[in-house]
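Re: the request from the purification team.
They wanted to know what the chain is likely to look like in 3D before they choose a buffer screen. I agreed to run a prediction and write the result into the notebook, where they can find it.
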Amino acid sequence: MMLRVLEMEQKVIEAIKLVYDPEIPVDVYELGLIYGIEIDDDNNVQVNMTLTAPSCFAAEQIPVDVAARIKEIEEVKEVKVDVIFEPPWSQEMMTEEAKLTLGFL
């Protein structure tokens, strides 16, 4: 049971990694914009995410893109993406790979 959830979570993460902030050449997962992924027994997916800035011009499009990519996973039934701003995003939330790509390391 636990393995199935981990496999689904990995599929969801891989799908999310296909979504990029249009202003930054790094995917939203590596940027640290994904705060949480929950998958229930029926393969309904709940994602809590944030944006680099509330005024980001792509603020409406990025969560839609995240949901669309997750919905492409055959086993997924429903997807809900909530945008939250607590805690506020900061550069410390980026992965080492993202920091390298953006020249912060």
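For the purification team: The domain at 2-97 is CATH 3.30.300.130 (GMP Synthetase; Chain A, domain 3).
Please add any questions underneath this entry.
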